[in-house]
Amino acid sequence: MVLAIGAALLWDQAGPAWPLVCGLAAVAFLWWQGRSVGNIWAWTTLLLGIESMAWPIATMLRVRFSGNQPTEEEMGAILNSVLFGLFSSVFWVTFALGLFKRQKEAAAPPATAPSIEAAPVRSRKSRKHK
To answer: Roughly how many angstroms between the first and final C-alpha of the chain, as a whole number?
Structure first.
C-alpha cells in the first residue's frame, strides 16, 4: 500500500491506473519472495528505498521536460526532493541490507567453534647432571 501511495504521489498526472498496477506488482513480488515476515520486511524496506530514490529523479525530469527555465519554486522542490529523498533512500536501503544480512545469518547453520585440542604430553627425559 505504501508503494502504491508513493507511486500516486510521484506520478500525480498518471491517473489511478498506474499506482494500482505498481501496488499489485509489489504485492505479487512480495507474495513470491516472502518466505517469512523478516523477508517481507527486508524486501518492503528495499522497495521503499528504491522509491525514495526515484522521487528526486522524477522531480528533476518533470522540471526538465516542462520546457521552461526552472522557477525558484521548482528549484526549491528539486532541492527538497534531493535532500529528503536521498536521505530517506539511504536510510531504507541500509535498513533493508541489515535485514537481509540478519536473514542470511539466521538461515545459515550455526558455525561450530574450533575445539582446542590439548597438546600431546611430552615425556620428560631425565638428564644426568654432572
So the answer is: 92
